[in-house]
Amino acid sequence: MSQVSIERRDGVAIITIDNPPVNALSQAVREGLKRCIDEATDDDAIAAIVIICTGRTFIAGADIREFGRPPEPPHLPDVVARIEAADKPVVAAMHGTALGGGLEVALGCHYRIAARSAKLGLPEVSLGLLPGASGTQRLPRLIGAERALDMILSGKPVKAQVALDYGLVDQICDDDKLRDTAIEFAVSQVGNGPRRISEMTVADVEPDLFEKTRTAIARKTRGLMSPERIIRCVELSTQVGFDEGCKAERELFLECKNSAQSDGLRHAFFAERAVSKVSGIGKDTSVRATDKVAVLGAGTMGAGIAYNCLTAGCTVHLLYNDEAGLKRGATTIRKLFEGGVTRGKISEEDMADGVGRLSTTTDYGDIGDADLVIEAVFENLAIKKEVFEKLDAVCKAGAILATNTSTLDVDAIAGATKRPQDVIGLHFFSPAHIMRLLEIVRGAETSNEVIATSLALAKRLRKIGVVVGNCFGFVGNRMLYNYGRENQFLLLEGAAPEQIDQALTDWGMAMGPNAVGDLAGLDVGYKVRQERTDLPNDPRFYRIADLHVEQGRFGQKTGKGMYLYAEGSRVPTPDPEVQSLIDNESAKLGIARRDIEPQEIIERCIYGLITEGARILEDGIATRSSDIDVVWTNGYGFPRHRGGPMHFANTVGLAAVYEKVCEFRDRFGTEFWEAPGLLKDLADKNQRFSDFDKSNK
Ligand code: 3H9
User: Fold this and answer.
1) From 383, 497, 662, 697, which residue has the greatest number of CB atoms within 10 Å?
2) Which residues are known to be catalytic?
């Protein structure tokens, strides 16, 4: 059956798009839309046209999957122009989300009606694109350049009521009346002639609007190409005619579409949707309740997790072993709520409701009826095992027992209970209420039901849950070890902390490894290393970090670490003492210091990640490379526009990566730089990491 159909009712042609799941504008939909518009305009019995969609949403945009292939006609800008050229009133009837090319289709219509719950936006920027079907030329003509800039640069959709206030839609109606309202509206416009946005002019703007916008967004959009091109397009809408503006928009759109940045961002989009497809888990896998949560531990992590659960509507019992600690935890949670209110993220009522669902206890006996327990106590295996033994004794049957360990063996923790099938790792990232990543660590005996529930919980907490296997550090922290190791070696070989951080942030990392170490606390990794017995016996290994901790330089919390911090400041300042400590250590270890180029810093740190990522795939800890990318883009500040470490490796070409790794092996030794077999195999076959997929999905 055709994805676009036409139905006639009382002189109105109702064109319906039916292309699940989100009515994306595939070639067939574009073709069908054009055909139906032609048919309706050619039919003398038709006086007006309505475009509407079935399913859960209006058109959510161009079909992004087609962007990797040569475009096939009819092109969207031509379809939109064809709609606008109609000599009968055309009305868009929008529900769900009218996004990207979907909103551009609506802007080609002469009028727009939105269901009250609808949201409208141009999110192309988040895919490294700009609206490429005349959105940058029509939107400013309709709602003014300033608002258009704001909508297109932020990519954030606006609610129907806001769209009405902006003049973006002509009427809003109850969701169940959309079709009838749109038909009525179309009929009411018969005889008025079409109202074409392309024939309008943009209202006057402040003369410095565009320069001010460029300056305002520069820091946030550092290194990204589409924001500047968006500003250029909107600026053109105020300077040149519609056709000329559209021509420029098309050129800039294609430039963005063909860029590595958009390729990386599109990869990130699909990778985040692939994570929920997990072998053994389907729609029929039952999901347990997670309404009653107990959180063990009242420190920063425990309080962050508790706050996260409260804002998701759960009741939370906070358990800690002393009243003073509990009080501190409850105060932290209250402060998080207050911060949310100040930033306009939550209302006073929601705060009162959330705080009302929090209770505290020092008694394990009080958490027996919890659906889910999340343990966030000290990162020590013996302590965690003890805690799980107690949980096993008090928790109701079917309760999910989760550990927030960031490195430890989930099976060993599960082994402390008589119900390992109910035990899972839920690795939150700090700050827990902000970071979107949740590593879901499946133990050897964790049941599919518990995994499915954890994936559902991630959604409930507005996080991205990635299911990973059990090993030291799972995916994220296991890879971090290699990255950190190279940072440490580079320090000893001649690079200053700020030089390494600068090279990596210029490359796109959100922060450099030395600033991150200070933020997280150098003592945290130190304690973990102290517990490990399997670390390389190389005196250079994490030597600088260890020395810092042994001298009480823990990072921001002690005012000094790899950098100095002024009282109450989080701004890192290079510290000459750190440099002399490193210089001394290099001399002691007989390492000749040298100048190191940013390129070497980037390659050693990033290829260190990639090689460990390859081993993680080989070991089955991640079942597809895109899951690793999601972990790194959402948990470790890896630049999203590079897609993630594994996608980045694909874009470099695995043969070139393999060659470089071999070069490092020859220069720095086999202990750290032996190329993983999988990298060699794929490179030999001229394949990508994405060709190695064990997810069975
Ligand atoms: C554009 O329009 C360019 C134009 O300006 C110019 C052109 C010339 N294409 O997110 P969900 C799939 S750029 C293809 O889980 P939700 C998605 O992969 C586009 N597929 O659902 C998933 O597939 P699967 C601008 C798409 O309810 C399934 O649909 N538009 C597209 O949580 C369900 O997705 C955007 O950037 C697409 N455009 O959220 C909007 N969109 O089941 C992008 C989704 O196989 N989309 N899929 O994994 C979204 O933001 C969300 O999907 C939406 C629904 C809010 C619509």
Assistant:
1) 497
2) 104, 124
